[in-house]
TrEMBL record:
<feature type="domain" description="RNA polymerase sigma factor 70 region 4 type 2">
    <location>
        <begin position="130"/>
        <end position="178"/>
    </location>
</feature>
<dbReference type="Pfam" id="PF04542">
    <property type="entry name" value="Sigma70_r2"/>
</dbReference>
<dbReference type="InterPro" id="IPR013324">
    <property type="entry name" value="RNA_pol_sigma_r3/r4-like"/>
</dbReference>
<keyword id="KW-0731">Sigma factor</keyword>
<feature type="domain" description="RNA polymerase sigma-70 region 2">
    <location>
        <begin position="23"/>
        <end position="88"/>
    </location>
</feature>
<dbReference type="InterPro" id="IPR007627">
    <property type="entry name" value="RNA_pol_sigma70_r2"/>
</dbReference>
<dbReference type="InterPro" id="IPR013249">
    <property type="entry name" value="RNA_pol_sigma70_r4_t2"/>
</dbReference>
<protein>
    <submittedName>
        <fullName>Sigma-70 family RNA polymerase sigma factor</fullName>
    </submittedName>
</protein>
<dbReference type="InterPro" id="IPR014284">
    <property type="entry name" value="RNA_pol_sigma-70_dom"/>
</dbReference>
<comment type="similarity">
    <text>Belongs to the sigma-70 factor family. ECF subfamily.</text>
</comment>
<keyword id="KW-0805">Transcription regulation</keyword>
<dbReference type="InterPro" id="IPR013325">
    <property type="entry name" value="RNA_pol_sigma_r2"/>
</dbReference>
<dbReference type="Pfam" id="PF08281">
    <property type="entry name" value="Sigma70_r4_2"/>
</dbReference>
<keyword id="KW-0804">Transcription</keyword>
<dbReference type="InterPro" id="IPR036388">
    <property type="entry name" value="WH-like_DNA-bd_sf"/>
</dbReference>
<dbReference type="InterPro" id="IPR039425">
    <property type="entry name" value="RNA_pol_sigma-70-like"/>
</dbReference>
Length: 198
């Protein structure tokens, strides 16, 4: 008779490598599948699955059966790691694009202290004016939560008690308004058209 995940994890907590191998066989496909659905990339999903099982090996003695099944516990760990990965990728891409958009340069001020602060300040002022004068309250709140606080559409929808599809529409429309506003009000020293790659 095959051991339950709870019995296997108990064995892992004592350093039983055979129990760990069996637990891996039971949960690996589910861990990878969940990670793949969240991050959308095979390599990243494989990395996350590996990290999850390393964490299980290290933290198995701390598992508390009163807080839920082993399966639920492992899926929670997997989901958290996958979401962290998505946010890390989003932050990296935002930083890489910082030179092409006033919105991104405004964000970049926190991580690039040696940048051109005068330009950043000017872009920030233009951006704030556009946000305050061209966006509805819901558009403003949704964009700030998504782009400056790193929340997903679903998280923004929960925070604003609004349907996710509505949030997506408001963010899309809000960004269009900001792009138009920024293009209509370029920096005084450069009358170029602002990039639309954001």
């Amino acid at each position: 008779m095959r051991s339950s995940p709870e019995q296997l994890l108990s064995g892992v907590g004592t350093g039983d490598e055979k129990a760990f191998a069996e637990l891996y066989e039971v949960l690996a496909d589910r861990v990878y599948g969940l990670a793949r659905r969240v991050v959308g990339d095979d390599t990243d999903a494989e990395d996350i699955a590996q990290e999850v099982f390393v964490q299980l090996w290290q933290t198995a003695p701390r598992y508390d059966p009163a807080r839920g099944s082993v399966h639920s516990w492992v899926m929670t760990i997997t989901h958290r790691r996958a979401v962290d990965k998505v946010r890390a990728v989003r932050t990296r891409r935002s930083h890489e694009a910082a030179a092409s958009s006033p919105i991104d340069r405004f964000e970049a001020d926190a991580w690039d202290p040696v940048g051109d602060h005068a330009q950043i300040a000017a872009d920030a002022a233009r951006l704030r004016r556009c946000i305050l004068t061209r966006l509805t309250i819901l558009q403003r709140q949704a964009i700030v939560l998504a782009y400056y606080h790193g929340h997903t559409y679903a998280e923004v929808a929960r925070l604003l008690d609004t349907h996710p599809s509505t949030i997506k529409t408001r963010i899309r429309d809000g960004l269009r308004r900001l792009r138009t506003c920024l293009n209509d009000n370029p920096p005084a020293q450069s009358r170029h058209v602002v990039s639309t790659r954001w």
